[in-house]
Amino acid sequence: MRIPESKIEEIRNSISIVDVISEYVQLRKRGKNYIGLCPFHSEKTPSFTVTEEKQIFHCFGCHAGGNVYKFLMDYKKISFVEAVQEIAEQQGIEINYDDEGFNEKQSEQEILYDINTEVARYFSNNLLHDAEGEIARTYFQKRNLKIQTMRSFGLGYAHNGYENLVNFLKEKNIDLEKALQLGLIGRNNDGRVYDKQAGRIIFPIFSPNGRVVAFAGRKLREDDSGGKYINSPESIIYIKGRIFYGLSHAKDDIRKLDKAIIVEGYMDLISLYQAGVKNVVAVSGTALTDDQAQLLSRYTKNVVLLFDADAAGIKASMRSIEILLKRDFDVKISTLPKGEDPDSYVTKFGKEAFDEIIKTS
Ligand SMILES: [Zn+2]
């Protein structure tokens, strides 16, 4: 996908960099420039400068800088094309993609996104339409998930075996080296490639913009010797500490309600979402990071932590609170009755009971 150079310029000229950055950074006018606290490093006195005349930003502290596209790419962790599309959309400018550019090399990122999209579709089909997928459908149905919810979160199933995905990738002419980079497949000492998530249920992990950046595979079979979850390794499109599971689904509701509920697991989030509690994100196994806090602060400054009441959950809560307070969040903590987790609680008692718990936090 290539956007003509002239279009990129037209779109850039349709807005002022000051207006765009103001949405994310509080700017004050100083002389010809605007200054504010840098969003790319932590500081107390502003060294982040936006120059309207030149339509660029620059930080004297960490030397971040560039034009409006560069700002959006760095701030939102999106690709160049996405940054251009975002402004075009805002400004109501239609992009006619350059046909001649079709043969041009796609950016590395775009190629990886495309592979993940194909693979996500493959996993989803296995779950919803394949005979072997029965085992995974049964698992999700036991957890009370509706088909619609499985679709909406792109849930999937990886066939059990050595090279089912490998064969699919070959059929689709997908570069196996790239699939290795994404951690979809592995390579043995003898050079043979194999499926890494064989026999597992699959949770695709989405970027805030809804693109598939990684996969988490949950163990389903007793004879699977791997860990409970196998997650994609980091890649140029997936930096763990910068992704919140479920954010692409939840961001509108988080903005609307000006509040985010943070839970621990994939299933917690999906169950809540299905029950109508949609302003939820999940840290999914890792401790909350400062990057995640920064990401979330674009949507709200109010969070409710809803971690399991076991020792590990309490420890994770404490660490998360510290990080959130540093970013000026208003933090509340919710606890469920002993022995309950968000997933089972909302399934048993419904949204109203759950809302009560959150209200009284
Ligand atoms: Zn800086």
Outline the structure in words.
By secondary structure, the protein is of the alpha+beta class. The chain folds into 3 domains: 96 residues, Zinc finger, CHC2-typedomain (DNA Primase, Chain A, Alpha-Beta Complex); 131 residues, DNA primase DNAg catalytic core, N-terminal domain (Alpha-Beta Complex), CATH 3.90.980; 113 residues, Dna Topoisomerase Vi A Subunit, Chain: A, domain 2, CATH 3.40.1360.10. 41% of the residues lie in helices and 16% in strands. The protein is built from 14 helices and 15 strands. The protein has a 5-stranded antiparallel beta sheet. A hairpin with a 5-residue loop joins strand 9 and strand 10. Helix 3 crosses helix 4 and helix 11 crosses helix 14. The protein is globular and about 70 Å long. The N and C termini lie far apart (47 Å). The site of zinc ion has 8 residues, from loops.
Helix vs. strand class: alpha+beta
Gyration radius from CA atoms, angstroms: 22 Å
Low-confidence stretches: 100-105
Q: Shape from CA axes?
A: globular
Q: Helix share of residues? A: 40-55%
Strand content: 15-25%
Number of helices: 14
Name of the CATH superfamily of the largest domain: DNA primase, catalytic core, N-terminal domain
Second CATH tier, the architecture of the largest domain: Alpha-Beta Complex
SSE order, one letter for each helix or strand: HHEEEEEHHHHHEHHEEEEEHEHEHEHEH
